[in-house]
Structures are given as C-alpha cells and as structure tokens.
Amino acid sequence: MTDATATMDVYEAVTSRRAVRRFTDREVPREVLERVLSAAAWSPSGSNLQPWHAYVLTGEPLAELKKLTGERAADGDPWDEPEFQMYPPDLKSPYRERRSDFGEKRYGALGISREDWDARRRAATDNWECFGAPAALFCYIDRDMGPPQWSDVGMYLQTVMLLLRAEGLHSCAQMAWSVYRRTVAEVLSPPSGLILYCGMSIGYEDVTAAYARTGRAPLHETVTFLES
Ligand SMILES: Cc1cc2nc3c(=O)[nH]c(=O)nc-3n(C[C@H](O)[C@H](O)[C@H](O)COP(=O)(O)O)c2cc1C
C-alpha cells in the first residue's frame, strides 16, 4: 500500500467509487485482497451474524468461469431459474425513471441508442467477462436469511468496494452473475444451502474507456429532516 492510498479520506473513497466496466489486465496482489477482506470483515450486521460468504477468484479458476459463461452467453443459453427477484416486476415511479435514466447513461456512453436492444444485450455480455478484470468476488448468502441479513451483505459489499478504493483499485458489483449461477457453482462448489447474490469485478481501471457518471436524486427526494 502506498502512503497516498493508505490515507484516502472516507468521503473520497465514497465519491470516487463507481461501477467501473473496463479494467486493465494488471494483476491484483493476493495480499491486497486479503488486507481488504480482513478489514471488511469488520462490517456491521444485526446480532453480528456476518451472513456473507465470499469467494475470490483470480487466475485459472476465473479464466475457466469466464470461458464457461462466455460459451453459454454466445450460445444464447437460457438463464438459470432465478433464486431471487432482482427488481420488482412493475417498477413504479420514481424508480422506473431512475432505472431508465441509468440505462440511457450506461449505454449512451458506448454509443448505443435507447432502442438498440441487441447492442445493449451484447454490451451486457461484458458482465461475464468481468469487464476484463483479473479478479472477482462472488458473494453468497444462506437461503434461510431474510431481508435484514441481505441488507447486512450489502453493507459488507460496500465496505469491500470502499476499501478497494483505498488500495487504488476499482470494482463493479454484478447481480448479472446470478443468471448463470449454476455455472458459477460448477467452478466454486459452494455448499447447497447458499444463494448467489452477486459477483464483483475487481481490478485497476482502464482509464481510456468511455463512461458516463451516474447521478443521484437530490437530497430532499430521499432524506427527510424533522426539526423543531
Ligand atoms: C447489488 C448491485 C448489483 C449490480 N449489478 C450490476 C450488474 O450486474 N452489471 C453492471 O454493469 N452493474 C451492476 N451494478 C452497478 C450499478 O448499475 C451501479 O452501482 C449504479 O448504476 C450506480 O452507479 P455507480 O455505482 O457508478 O455510482 C450493480 C450494483 C449493485 C449495488
């Protein structure tokens, strides 16, 4: 760890974290990943259940996984039956608008128009290449766990992503991996009682790649202050 990254301010870590979707092939040292995951273990969870189960893949196992899912995507294989619903089926306002705004930004940065669903689908297949990242984390949760524990896992994942920033690394959380969960399980062999929540690509950003920064709703839309 260099002095510069060791002292990254928490605000800077939060605001500089974004979903990076193009990485260089520079390897991520094992000791860095261990340092990040050891610190992330201090994430809070209700009654300290620590309901996260993380698998970290680099090298051959990750290459094998990318190959297998890449083949499935290329063959137009149907997705595995979902174990959880990624989004409510009929997103209402304001979530619907936020989602469509995100899609426009994400694919607009790649020069893909709103109506070009084929091109959007092709771009989405980069998910299963981990956007070129040389490391990936897969996070599982016990199927007995409920919404509060899923929320604990979210806190854990965010902690991991912020610590990665402190190490000069970037990441992209990816629920997209859940659609090929059987292939992920083939490579990882997790215990049968676990559900794959999401993957996370980890690596050094390819700064030459185009991207559009997502915005956020104004504070008054999501926060209410009650004052005397
Ligand atoms: C749980 C979770 C799952 C996500 N899944 C994907 C995914 O499958 N593919 C992807 O490209 N981005 C994915 N994202 C990234 C979001 O699209 C991104 O966080 C959001 O648009 C806000 O943008 P920002 O992270 O760049 O600030 C996911 C983010 C989270 C938190």
Automatic annotation (TrEMBL):
Listed transmembrane segments: none
Keywords for the protein's UniProt record, in alphabetical order: Flavoprotein, FMN, Oxidoreductase
GO molecular function annotation: oxidoreductase activity
Gene3D superfamilies membership: NADH Oxidase (3.40.109.10)
Stored InterPro entries: Nitroreductase (IPR029479), Nitroreductase-like (IPR000415), Nitroreductase/BluB (IPR050627)
Superkingdom of origin organism: Bacteria
Domain named Nitroreductase: residues: 15-204
Family matches, as SUPFAM superfamilies: FMN-dependent nitroreductase-like
CDD domains: PnbA_NfnB-like (cd02136)
Protein name from the UniProt record: Nitroreductase
Organism for this UniProt entry: Actinopolymorpha pittospori
